[in-house]
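We store chain and fold; example below:
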Amino acid sequence: MLTQAFEVIPAIDVLEGRVVRLSQGRREAVTIEGGDPVELARRFRDEGAGRLHLVDLDGAFSGTPTLDLVERVARAGGLPLQVGGGYRAAAAIAAALDAGADRVMVGTAALSPPFLADATERFAERLVVAIDARDGKVAVDGWTRTSDATPAAFACDCAAAGVDRLLVTSTTRDGSLAGPDIDLLVDVLAASLPVMAAGGVSSLEDVLALRDLGCESAIAGSALLGGRFTLAEARERLARSG
């Protein structure tokens, strides 16, 4: 069954105050330098984005989110904003929501069943669990190491805990423009939760493939910053293809 109201969500990944794209999430492998995050948020708003996807890379690597970044981007974009990067405590999630985020993405901490149960109860639909996959396992701590959990099993745990939505990223394809990892997404979609797909999106064909697979949305970073397609082109193509 096709997901209704499929959308392309532009990504704003921020490292040391600047928009970047990293190859496979490696801090030293900057592939695109995209300027000021506030200016980019306004640009995507003006291009018709319905939501922004903000990743605080400094927070992801350090475990301490940059809350003033959330506030500045939320205010500038004026759009629903989902944020991730270092949110490993309930207090940090609440602070991000207070700063203007609409949703908060949690990865590493969600592997703890007590944390996941508490966060799901407290934040409900405003919580997104990020499943970052590498070599068949879930990557954690800013993608610097892998856990023992598989993406499919973790997705089932999230469904059992009452999680509303997943963000699924192939870390090896992130920033690569190599196309999404369809096998990974098929495995995770079996848990029957809404899935936002990230990692490798490079073309309108990729966007359509993710929609047709049953994903809820596609996160696009390098493709938009590199001019592979625009948000307007994506909306038109999605509308024409039914």
Notes: DSSP finds ten helices and twelve strands in the chain. Residues 131 and 168 are 5 Å apart (CA to CA).
